[in-house]
Amino acid sequence: MINKLIEKIRKTNAPIVVGLDPMLSYVPKHIQEKAFAEYGETLEGAAEAIWQFNKGIVDATCDLIPAVKPQIAMYEQFGIPGLQAYKKTVDYCKSKDLVVIGDIKRGDIGSTSAAYAVGHLGKVQVGSKCYAGFDEDFATVNPYLGTDGVKPFVDVCKEEKKGLFILVKTSNPSSGEFQDRIIDGRPLYEWVGEKVAQWGEDHMGDSYSYIGAVVGATYPEMGKVLRKLMPKTFILVPGYGAQGGKGADLVHFFNEDGLGAIVNSSRGIIAAYKQEKYAAIGELNYAEASRKAVEDMIADISGALESR
């Protein structure tokens, strides 16, 4: 799957991923009203609204981008109907030939970790048959429990030729409370980055590992160090746009081949119509605003990479 992701990045010339993290407050009123008219102001109504919202954005942007990243918590808040909307979103994106990164941030050990891995990336045995559960292409994983928590995911990824993005240095302000702690003379995130590179050595694609890392755009200097520590690791970079990251901050996350990183923007794209910059496009045309935001993001990152 890492080979497909790279192929699609090259084809679109867009090393970006759209974060499908829908809050109900992002969904335009006309979509909410239609969903509530059919299902009432219920969990089912909310789930229908976010599904239709997602579908509009995917239809408007799928030709420009290689991948999407739905954040499962935004769907889980609506219970079982929300998870059904998550699954519909995953399946629809795959029908559009987009790579799907399930932002699930799981982290456990033993059979529990294996069950998470099977549910999201593998197949579960039911009698004489096998079924794919959520069936994303990649999943995000929290490595706090060490190899015991990560290995079950890696094992499933090897079987299914799928991938992971493992949290190394996250974009949030308090990430340093643990991740920046000095251990044997080096910050913890460097030790984690080295471990991610080691895990990835046993699961390589043509030029990059199936085992990637998450490093926030808000810490470009740390990204520069981690890029060197993980030369064959693809880096998922959150924190662009709404969290303050911009194209000029991101050049160090990429290798000299122009690959090695994929940059995420969530509300900066899916709620673009709420921004002053795109307000003239209008709420009814929210998906067109999202498309324009994607085009602007591609131009920003491409320009930064060309001028480095």
Q: Can you tell me about this structure?
A:
With 308 residues, this protein is α/β, with parallel strands linked by helices. It has one domain (2-306): TIM Barrel (Alpha-Beta Barrel). The protein has helices at residues 2-12, 29-39, 43-61, 73-76, 79-95, 110-121, 147-160, 176-179, 188-201, 220-229, 267-270, 286-306, and strands at 16-18, 67-68, 99-106, 123-126, 129-132, 138-141, 163-169, 182-183, 186-187, 211-215, 235-237, 261-265. It has an 8-stranded parallel β-barrel with strand order 1-2-3-6-7-10-11-12, surrounded by 7 helices. Strands 4-5 form a two-stranded antiparallel sheet. Strands 8-9 form a two-stranded antiparallel sheet. Helix 10 (220-229) links the parallel strand 10 (211-215) and strand 11 (235-237). Helix 3 (43-61) packs across helix 12 (286-306) and helix 6 runs parallel beside helix 7 (147-160). It is globular, with a radius of gyration of 19 Å. It starts with a helix and ends with a helix.
